[in-house]
Amino acid sequence: MKAWHTFEIASILETLAASPVGLSSNEAARRLQESGRNELVEARRISPYKIFLSQFKNILILVLLAAVLLSIIIGEVLEAVTILVIVFFATLLGFFQEYKAERAMEALKRMAAPTASVLRDEEEREIAASEIVSGDIIILRVGDKIPADARIFEAYNLKVMEGALTGESVPSDKSTETLVKPDAPLGDRSNMLYMGTTVSYGRGKAVVVATGMDTEFGKIAGMLRDVETEKTPLQESLDRLGTVLVKAAFVVIAIIVFFGILRGEKLFDMFLWGIALAVAVVPEALPAVVTISLAIGVQKMVRRNALVRKLLAVETLGCTSVICSDKTGTLTRDEMSVRKVYVDKKLIDAIGVGYEPKGEFRCHGEPFDIDDGHFKTLLQIGVLCNDSELKFSQGVWGIKGDPTEVSLLVAAVKGGVDYKKERMTYTRVNEIPFSSERKRMTTLHKTSEGIYACSKGAPEIMLESCSHIFTNNKIMPLLSKEKEEILQAAHGMAQDALRVLAFAYKPQEKNPERGMIFVGLVGIIDPPRAETKEAISICRKAGIKPMMITGDHKITALSVAREIGMLQKGLVFSGEEIDNMGEKEFGKVVEDVDVLARVSPVHKIMAVRALQSKGYVVAMTGDGVNDAPALKKADIGMAMGITGTDVTKEAADLILLDDNFATIVAAVEEGRAIFGNIKKYLMYLLSSNLGEILIMAIAVLLGLPLPLAAIQILYVNLATDGLPALALAFDPSEPGLMEKPPRDPRMGIFTRPVVILMLAGGIWSTIVNLSIFLWGLDVRNNMLEAQSMVFVTLILIEFCKSFNFRSDVLSIKEYGLFTNRWLVAAIAVNCVMLWLVIYNPALQNAFNTFSLTAKDWAFSLLTALTIFPVLESVKFFIRRNQKSRNQNPIIL
Predict the structure, then answer these.
(1) Could you tell me the domains of the chain?
(2) Which residues lie across from 597 on neighbouring strands?
(3) Of 798, 776, 778, which is closest to residue 852 (Cα–Cα)?
(4) E strand residue ranges, 387-529
(5) What's the per-residue H, E or C state across 609-675?
(6) Is the dihedral of CA 346, 352, 357, 359 positive or negative?
(7) How many CB atoms within 10 Å of residue 563?
(8) For residues 549 and 606, is the Cβ–Cβ distance under 8 A?
(9) Is pLDDT at 363 greater than 90 in this prediction?
(10) Can you name the residues that pair with 324 across neighbouring β-strands?
(11) CB of 604 closer than 8 Å to CB of 627
(12) For 554-577, what is each residue's pLDDT tens digit?
């Protein structure tokens, strides 16, 4: 790619064999044939049936299908149908998500201009943008969308809105001046135009230097297409879990069948028991629980202004450890506001932000008199030398025109100036428009005293044209000392990242920009959102590192970061500095970086990649096309719902409906709660399954009769893996969730405390139920009664476990026994079902049970309740050894 911004126009025209009067139609047709259409190339689409088949690559889905087959073999058709419905639901949901997920390239195409004005055969023609070729001369007017990358050779007050590409919050001034630095950031290439940006002011001509995939848009499209989507931590954890369960199922079948045959049991009977236990190992409700947990989280997030596009992204939020946030509109309001006013040697603070004209002015902390003559004069100039409009419609303040000029109108209204009346009273009769070369704008107005000139622009430029100053209610000569004071005041504002404008006027038409009267300065900024500082504080408490990545200038970014409390280590780099460092060197310091300014899409991806290589889970926000590749590369991509482009929204996992950083923090909290509920389910279910398997395996090893019939094993599995497990998906989040560090995704679900708690629950359940079985055989001397007692006690102890496993650390007292009403209802329904299985004659025959007495029920219930003190003691031990929560995982 040539550094076209460093080429002289004559050299470019010669290189491209082009002319200022345009190409001929024949030459354009030849070039189109040779280089191809000015379009973005879309990656090859995956057919719908392949997307559907890919859903079955999930190991857990394969395990569930195996469970269906095994259930059919042993005649449990209801069990098989239940599992099939769950599998169908999970795969269908995954299919629809993936089918809609890859449309970012289409959005990029929609952003390209459909038509463009070019010079062909020495006359202006409107052609399809796809037919533009290198060397074409394009004609630019207000509102035009740039159809290709081009070098400007004529510019008249030309401004282009490049925020979607560069991240700039205000329109960029354009000129024809040749630049020197080959590696200048896109936002600093003032003589270049880029595909997909829009002309916001003025007019011009440019020669096309790149089309299609060779444009900056094309490079982004290529990056977006090449970025691979990583698996989420939850997907990886569940894949590992599925592999472990497959191995466990085979081991269970082998042990049961082998030792049963050695003991003289029938091969078929042992095979049925082995299959029943293998089915019990598989948590068939897991996909449903995961889906329901994520769906509940999605609904909660929508209520908190976060729209989730990909369900699994919800869980990824829970282990987010770095949030890379754009500045404009996310950390700030994306509404330019006057913050400081300098008149008559006084520095005045403007209170109130945004386009709603509410607020006040203060000087040294005290209310300022808005009727002050100097102050009023400055506001009047800001209103008259201004082309913008401020509108109030349907309860909302809207704007028309340049945001910087709008901020001057808002300040005027706050200061008691009726800007519409001022414009009617002082009619504009002429103007000298702004240009990037002049860096000022002057308007001429008819008054009862004659023609007055009003002017605003860069302080240095304005002071050169001023010979007098309005001070102490008098017009006095402007001395060198006063000029120095004014420049120092302007420098002080600039140091605070304010965009500084100077104001002057002259009561005559002749040479309006000479011998003017200086009035004052205004400092303007896109202010931080009020809630941003608190949100960043919450991030710090939650162990999450916030980082600003913006296309704005370094000074602006640093000032905003300092104000909102984002600076911690204080490292701030520009894109140019990153290039000088190199990716390897940048990777060494990336953990200490607080702000990246003036960056390109490549730098954003570089930052994400460097952080991920250090083990961080990265969330990236963005609104422009330039953000899309980084959003896709990040673990969780977040697009702006209000200011975001279609491209960004399509590439993102989550859309912030209010473009607010605080919404990200709220989404992280929901993500943590969702992962917690999935963990609760797995702890409860696998601990219960462990108790079922151990009692059967130990009985076989000891040469005892089997404590449960095959049908009873399947019923226990259905009772525990059904409603109670699903109810845990609705569990409220634990207290103090955002005061803990983020979960390390490499640890998976089963940390040391979780495994200890699961083992304790499974082993105690085994001890209790095996004891009851031996007691039943010895005292009752009846196999049917012994099995029935174990059947009832096992189910009751697992019901009790469901309350215990609502937290792996907190005691029941801390989170409340009955705070999950869905769980209470699920247990109640299952108790009714168990009652029917025990007392209904038809069900007694089917499930091999007999009618228990009141003493039997009391004995089983009291025995089951012993799980509470056991698990509460284990939790107490875990709390006493909190360091164990950071240990490496034992299984997954």
Answers:
(1) 4-39+108-212 (2.70.150.10), 235-305+669-886 (1.20.1110.10), 307-332+529-659 (3.40.50.1000), 337-525 (3.40.1110.10)
(2) 574
(3) 776
(4) 389-393, 396-400, 427-432, 440-447, 450-457, 466-471, 474-477, 499-506, 516-525
(5) HHHHHCCCCEEEEECCHHHHHHHHHCCEEEEECCCCCHHHHHHCCEEECCCCHHHHHHHHHHHHHHH
(6) negative
(7) 18
(8) no
(9) yes
(10) 547, 620
(11) yes
(12) 888 888 898 899 988 888 999 889
CA separation for the pair 713, 277 (Å, rounded): 7
Sheet holding 618-622: strands in order across? 306-308, 654-656, 636-640, 618-622, 322-325, 545-549, 593-597, 571-574
| Cα distance between residue 802 and residue 827, in whole Å | 9
* Whole-number Å distance between alpha carbons of 778 and 121: 107
Predicted TM-score (pTM) of the model is: 0.67
User: Average pLDDT over the chain, rounded to whole?
Assistant: 83
Lowest mean pLDDT among 57-71, 260-274, 579-593, 651-665: 57-71
Question: 849: phi > 0 → left, psi -120 to 50 → alpha, else beta; which?
Answer: beta
Task: Give the number of other Cβ atoms within 10 Å of residue 302's Cβ.
Answer: 12
Residue 398 CA to residue 515 CA, distance in Å, equals 37
Residue 103, pLDDT > 60, answer: no
Would you state the torsion angle of the CA atoms of residues 408, 409, 415, 421, taken in this order, to the nearest 10 degrees? 140
What gap in Å lies between CA 193 and CA 235, rounded to an integer?
A: 43
Q: Which residues are catalytic?
A: 326
* Token duo for residue 438: 């002049």
Q: Are 95 and 55 in contact (CB under 8 A)?
A: yes
Residues 851-878 have pLDDT tens digits of 999 999 999 999 999 999 999 999 988 8
Continuous H helices in 102-129: 104-111
Provide the strand spans (E) within 507-653: 516-525, 545-549, 571-574, 593-597, 618-622, 636-640
Strands 618-622 and 636-640: parallel
Q: What is the largest CA-CA distance in the chain?
A: 120
Return the residue matching tokens 């017009």: 475
Of 354, 329, 333, 398, the closest CA to residue 167 belongs to: 329
Instruction: Tell me how far CA of residue 16 lies from CA of 6, 19, 134, 208, 329, in angstroms.
Output: 15, 9, 7, 9, 40
What b/e sequence results for 661-675 when a residue is b if at least 16 CB atoms lie within 10 Å of its CB, and e otherwise? Answer: bbbbbbbbbbbbbbb
Tens digits of per-residue pLDDT, 787-838?
999 999 999 999 999 999 988 888 888 878 888 999 999 999 999 999 999 9
Structural Rg of the chain based on CA atoms: 36
How much is the pLDDT for 288?
62
- Choose among 400, 404, 355: nearest CA to 382: 404
H/E stretch holding 120: strand 115-120
Q: Which two tokens stand for residue 682?
A: 């797995």
Q: Are 500 and 521 in contact (CB under 8 A)?
A: yes
CB 638 within 8 A of CB 309: no
Collapsing DSSP to helix, strand or coil, 744 comes out as: coil
More confident residue, 270 or 387: 387
**Rounded distance between C-alpha atoms, residue 12 and residue 865, angstroms:** 85
Residues 6+ positions from 388 with CB-CB distance below 8 Å: 399, 400, 401, 402, 405, 406, 408, 409
Report the alpha-carbon distance of residue 204 to residue 257 in Å, rounded. Answer: 85
Residues of 686-696 as b/e, b for ≥16 C-beta within 10 angstroms? bbbbbbbbbbb
CB hemisphere CA count around 805 (13 angstroms):
35
70 within 8 A of 275, measured Cβ to Cβ? yes
Q: Give Cα separations from 389 to 377, 419, 586 (angstroms).
A: 20, 9, 45
Q: Give the residue from 584, 538, 545, 551 showing the smallest Cα distance to 567.
A: 545
726: Cα separation from own chain's centroid: 28
Q: Which two tokens stand for residue 558?
A: 């640093």
73 neighbors 275 (Cβ within 8 angstroms): yes
Residue 15 has pLDDT above 60, yes or no: yes
**Pair 793, 849: CB distance under 8 Å:** no
